[in-house]
UniProtKB/TrEMBL annotation:
Organism (species): Oncorhynchus mykiss (Rainbow trout)
Lineage: Eukaryota, Metazoa, Chordata, Craniata, Vertebrata
Family: Belongs to the PET191 family.
Keywords assigned by UniProt, alphabetized: Disulfide bond
InterPro entries in alphabetical order: Cyt_c_oxidase_assmbl_Pet191
Pfam family, one: Pet191_N
Protein name per the record: Cytochrome c oxidase assembly factor 5
């Protein structure tokens, strides 16, 4: 679920909403919090896979020439 806050400063970068949610998912996951592993290790184990795929699709749509007409994917 996307998290939006009123007092949050605006991030003008592309895919910033997905980036924030992906980061929060990784840092709050039991793999990092309880087991003390690095977030990169948790990614290799397959945690937060849906947000990782969405973030990849958003970044890939920036390079796609068709996205000029369709707009970037993501939020």
């Amino acid at each position: 679920m996307p998290k939006f806050y009123e007092d949050k400063e605006e991030d003008g970068r592309a895919c910033s909403g997905i980036r924030e949610d992906f980061r929060a998912c990784l840092l709050q996951h039991d793999c990092v919090v309880k087991e003390g592993k690095m977030p990169s290790q948790c990614l290799k184990e397959g945690h937060c896979k849906a947000l990782q795929t969405s973030f990849f699709e958003c970044k890939r749509s920036m390079l796609d020439n068709r996205s000029r007409f369709r707009g970037r994917k993501g939020y």
